[in-house]
Fold each of these.
Amino acid sequence: MVGQNPLKKLLLHLALLIVVVLSIFPFYWLTVMATRTTSEIYRFPPELTFGGELIKNIRNVISHIDFFGSFFNTLFVAVTSTLLVLFFCSLAGFAFAKFEFPGKKILFTLMLLTMMIPHQLSLIPSFMIMQKLGWVGSFKALIVPGMASAFGIFWMRQYATGAVHDELLSAGRIDGCGLFRLYWNVALPILRPALAFLGIFSFIGSWNDYMWPLVILTDPAKYTLQVTLSQLNGIYNTDYAMVMAGTLMATLPLIVIFLMASRQFISDIAAGAIKD
């Protein structure tokens, strides 16, 4: 960007600043509402500064629902399903990218076509399958169907096509590596930036999933966080300050996970750029 017009540079930074503010403001507003009372939330003009009701609202959340039980349920499901997604999607994506086998193009095309099917259309068939397997009401019904995704395989295949060079695989074969060792010892370390992104994407998707846990879970002790938080909405009136506090408590782990994984994602990309 040497010699760039200073005015264009200033406008670019100003545009980026506006985008950052617009991206952060919803979380800031959520935090503000979580520190206020419901009557203060309805006030006009709205208060844009933090209040002093956060601890009280958090106590109300904990007293109304089993927050920590559902939190650990969600954490278990999200971590387990994310690890399975990373393994199976990276393995399948690597195979599609670097190996030739009969029906490869047809299988890949059919897999991509499944991405065009709305998730809502699969709810009833998926529930019937879970019922036949006897998994209704269990965590297996949340984890097993989501242990691989068409998007994850497509993403890993696209990344592996350009990042994993054929020369490295040839050298691995000369050293006596089989197919799985080529994946585990040669390809997997190179795929770390793509795995970091897919891990963030899958974890957030599993953490925020509401519809499928609502359909498949029957025991309140096994409810995930999103299903449990929906119980904060009253029939005749709703304490929105308490709802916002619960939402804030459920959002904070996602921010921590995102910051940790994105740092790994950026550092791996930077390391790869230096090596290249």
Amino acid sequence: MNGAVPVGRVAGVRVELHWSVLGIVVLVAAGLAAYQLPRALPGHSALGYAVSGTATAVLLVGSLLAHETAHAVVARRNGVAVEGITLWLLGGLARLRGEARSPGAELRIAVVGPVTSAALAVIFGLLALGVARFGGALAVAVLSYLAVLNAVLAVFNLVPAAPLDGGRVLRAALWRWRGNRFQAAVWSARAGLGLGYLLIAAGFVQLVAQGAEGLWWAVLGLFITSTAVAEERQARAGLALRDVRVRDVMSHPVETADGARTAEQFLRELRTEHAAYPVRGVDGSVDGLVSLRRLRSLTAAERERTTLREAACPVDQVPAAEPDEPLADVLPRLGGFAEGRVLVFTAGRLCGIVSPSDISRSLAEHGASFVPRVRDDPRPPPPDWWYPGQPRPG
């Protein structure tokens, strides 16, 4: 996601903060310090309200991180690679590279987030009860507020509609019932569309009747709707390609590039122009994938001193497939890789490459379409949290 800054790792998963995550901190801290806490607990100092509001905001961001980390950890334990976690204005997203291999794995990955939020709600609630015995009204208010927000997060995310966690639960149940995960994903996405439209309508009504609070519902509905549309499109593509194998669409033989050559040498001697090239190591194995777009973005001086191996995306970060795999299973892997390509290996040997154009041709033959959402996609990820309780001035 553009504008995201890496801040470290949690449980081995890379965590990034989008600049808009400051919106959570500002909205929650300002809403509590300036409006809610002074009204509920008058008589405290402005500094006390400010510290309480800021502490709540920071702990809320921590709660979102715990929610997404739970998704990521369980996904890895169920064989799904995790690219990282991004926190932003409307919540968080655990970026998974691929799909669950069974309905049970899908269910476990989906439900662990709400379970984590529910557990946090209980923990904050118990802490509030404990602190209340010793006074500290502001501390009790902070802990109570966090308990309520985590409880709301858990309940709302269990609504059976994609892209919410409840939508994943619905998809897992339908997948197990009907045996077709792509059709299950279509139904889950349709439920998401219905929820999104309902939130947009509710937000508009509230915006007219009560003011700015309705804007948050409408924005949330727009994000859910747009993400559900994308998920339905991908699911329908999977349905169309369920009988197509990777070998049927891959390009081969594959033209590779010597990783020891500099970018300038490679570009100067280029004869056949492809969008991306697998990079060979000293022993002939594949070290990574480099794109012409990446090479041409380098300055003249950088091209002279940068080797293709240094410019390439490492091979362990490039989506891979086997020739006999269903092409539908490969589609989700394109979503986490900016170059949108999959390398095809057999017995550890590179035998083909699949590009978006290869997939588009196959989809056109089957009457469907698919637009992979790559890392450079400017659209934000689906929200996992929202803030409906913004106070109105006055």
Amino acid sequence: MQKMNISTDFIAYFNCGSVKLKSEAEILGSIITAIIKDKKTVTNKSIIAYLLAELESTNDVIFQDCLRNTLQIVVGKTPDDDGFFS
């Protein structure tokens, strides 16, 4: 079973109702879904790795910008290995 412990602060950050964060929240949700589907553990590192893989595989400039924003949020909200996803 996948280990996932998501901080309520982290979830609240994405659910704040900001239109700007809607795309980032959708990206994060799809990344977490992909990690679980691949039967891997949802951790800071796995989310970051999946985001980087998406960045490297797309040529869509707008999507890349959203991916970068999501990556920046995840890195900023998870400053250590234990972070919000552990």
Amino acid sequence: MPKLVNVSQRDGIYFISINRPEKKNCVNHATALQLIDAFEKFDADEKANIAIFYGEGGTFCAGYDLSEVSEGKFPTGNEAQEFLTKYRFMGPSMMRPSKPVIGAIEGFAVAGGLELSLLCDLRVAAENAKFGVLCRRFGVPLLDGGTVRLAPIIGFGRAMDLILTGRPIDVKTGYEWGLVNRIAEQGKALEAAIELANEILQHPQECMRVDRQSAYFATYDSGGCYQTAFDYELVNGLPVLDEARRGATKFVKKNFKKNIGENKL
């Protein structure tokens, strides 16, 4: 199997990167499986106290690989039922790591890529970063936590703006809305994320993790079960996948070169 996800570790930092730059780091099922493996190993590694999640080649992630959706290659039937009890189509989206994760965002973090960025506790974004629920244009539902995590992070009204319109927002707007925590120069998001990670690593880790977990509980569990919210998103999204397949086919045939190949999402 090709190496679709790169993993390394240095000085307590666990680096996870999507390695499909020729596809703007769009995730297919094989990539999703490798991402799951990477995040599970990070969580189990006692020497790794924080992870940095990024994409190779100047793009974080432009979503799920719609060429696979158009061809019906994503998990279906019994395979999907077993896979989706614990994971989601983009891979680790539903996971809640026990240690902090920083997203280093260059270029596009859109559709499923936006949902993957929401897995991170903090997002460091370059000046050229773009965020959005661009899958709205092609009838592809949010199935990887977008409806669960987006509103608590940026507020319900702003989440509805992105979810209903499908419009992209730039890094300045993302920062003003609270989606972006730090802004970096183009090409230096990873460097800035490492600096932030080292700042966090200076603190006593056990106490920090306890406070982090309490914040997650107050946000997602005390008022409404995290697991139930993910299940509700899935149950509502699965019935429209036929529409998603038609939209993905339209995207692949008419829009890929224009919108992705020329960076004009």
